[in-house]
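Troubleshooting: if your tokenizer reports a length mismatch, compare against these two reference records.
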Amino acid sequence: MAFRCQRDSYAREFTTTVVSCRPAELQTEGSNGKKEVLSGFQVVLEDTLLFPEGGGQPDDRGTINDISVLRVTRQGSQADHFMQTPLIPGSQVQVRVDWERRFDHMQQHSGQHLITAVADHLFGLKTTSWELGRLRSVIELDSPSVTAEQVAAIEQSVNEKIRDRLPVDVRELSLDDPEVRGRGLPDDHAGPVRVVTIKGVDSNMCCGTHVSNLSDLQVIKILGTEKGKKNKTNLVFLAGNRVLKWMERSHGTEKALTTLLKCGAEDHVEAVKKLQNLTKLLQKNNLNLLRDLAVHTAHSLRNSPDWGGVVVLHRKEGDSEFMNIIANEIGSEETLLFLTVGDEKGAGLFLLSGPAEAVETLGPRVAEVLEGKGAGKKGRFQGKATKMSRRAEVQMLLQDYISTQSAEE
């Protein structure tokens, strides 16, 4: 059957009757990204204003008797509404749709039909699938590439048709109608078939909700293309209110950059390029200074009166190369050298060098104490750590090892 939401996509509320209500569970993604299972009820109504997921379009949100509906799915000719409060079968209920979400989906879905038809008409680019995303929508085109000129032509044409205020007609046809015969339908499809027609542009079967006139799309902006699956190209677009929100975000970013860069929007790119070049120069100079510091540090350690046994050094700024330069400059096979860089209490890098047999034995134990991981060979073991706060424990471990070896000798 065609639901009320499909017969009149602009309806925002109506009254219907509860047919059934049964216990059910819904798997959702929680705020922490983990899967959560909600207990509730699947409610079936005589008719529904809430669109069940299908045709590349997500389901609606809304309320039944002011109780939130968390998911709507289609099961054959009926729609299941997942709620966390039961309803009494036979009772009259008031259904309201989340209009902002509904109208957004109408704009994106009708926009997809329009772009698909124009891309095919102008360049023979066939649509193989599409996705109505939360922030942007994507049309998969059956072509390994789409040029910038083609994208510009498609965008210009679709917006001309929006300005022409072309009507969008939705008809219900029987399964044996010539327009339906031969087209693929879901195995569980029941009742009439809906055909959505943009006057003079496109006519396609579709179960989704659509605008009644292209003028309701307001505007379409194609953001560009991305590489899709094998020999496919993804066309990324926004329609209607999403374009306005995108412009608002972009304008906000532009104003912030104008303040930070102290120049007009037309000079932002050049200003950022200059900053990037300056950053690269500073990074190069910093790296050279760090290398010189590593050599100096190695000589200082080697000439220190405390040299021998276990030598420990931590530096907040540094990297693996910094530690390896120190180890190379020292080059001692008699002393255990334990170097660390990074946060004194959090994450960082470590290096252990010295007698090959000792490093082979102690390296994995050092990584374990620091709650990290690493690898090594030929008298050197290095890796990443998450608990630099336990460096003192590592130092005691190394000193105990040296003491034990000395006692055995």
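Reference record two:
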Amino acid sequence: MLPTLVILVGSWATLQADLLSDKKALLLPPVNFTIKATGIAQVRLHWDPNPDQEQSNVDLQYHVKINAPQEDDYSTRKTDSKYVAPLHDGFAASVRSILKRSHVSLASSWVSAELKASPGSSGTSVMNLTCSTNTVVSSHTHLRPYQVSLRCTWLVGKDAPEDTQYFLYYRFGAWTEECQEYSRDTLNRNTGCWFPRTFINSKGFEQLAVHVNGSSKHAAIKPFDQLFAPHSIDQVNPPRNVTVKLEETSLYIQWEKPVSAFPVHCFNYELKIHNTKNGYFQMEKLATNKFISKIDDVSTYSIQVRAVVSSSCRVSGSWGQWSQPIYVGKEKKLLAEWRLIVFPATSCFVLLIFSLICRVCHIWIKLFPSVPAPKSNIKDLLVVTDYEKAAWNETKIEVVSYVEEAGFEVMENSMF
């Protein structure tokens, strides 16, 4: 009985292998496979089912393999697919048919297509392209209370001619926009771009595609594409309305969520309390917008808060900017009182030194010289003649006084 069972199992396995071999021969690859650029860093892959393929294969799928600029693969039941990738160095992909039944999977041969690299001289495309986004309150519509700005910077290609001029475009979803506000280097070449308002959604999961091309009279400028994940370039604003209340040795700190399209529960915070007297830093990671701390009563404290979008609402990015420091403490009050004394005393001392210097160096006389009065003639001198006669002396005494008004000099001549 056992040998008979083994023979039957072996026969069944051989029959299945033969059937699979026949089915594989009948599984044909797709046809008319094309790749077409449909936007910045975006292509459309399209193919048709093989017309000779039996239509009974209702479980037919397709396996797409991206060969360049980076390797990737995925499966789909559709014959049309979009893919996002930088295109300046070209794009290549392959596709094949797949049949899945029960635990058996069959695959056809591959068919391939490619998109040629963009033309341009090597070393002329931009380098070190970096971009960042920031959310601000919108003043244009109530339907969109927040708007996202975009700022990008780059370096000129190392082999780009001096007359090279660059132009930047971005695409987010189906929206594409060209930059209108550029910053320039000393040779008047565009090296930065600013979009005060964009259609970028900071809550979205789509990638931001940035394209920079250029022109020159001396060379063909090679374009450059780069993709950015929104969470990785989003600069989270600092928390708003940070308030600090000091009651004896208790410090009560509270704040509001940053300007952002994300709701309150989507933020985590980091609190920094700095004792400026001894240099000690207290760092706290918080999920709420309140904190109470104990402090001494002889130091000054600096309080700052920053935020980050939590992983429950979006892929976590980097921490945002710190809020402006708020200072509290008695030492600060003593410092303010000390300033009220030091500043007036210093001002008086400076005035005293200045007046002494002016007196020693005769600065006031040089700056404000006295106006001399006109000299008087000798004829204008005042002559006073007094005669005194003594009864017992016949000597006549004449006193003549000369007064010169100009110099206030008095000359006396006595004759006996």
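Descriptive notes for reference record two:
- The longest strand covers residues 91-101.
- The longest helix spans residues 330-360.
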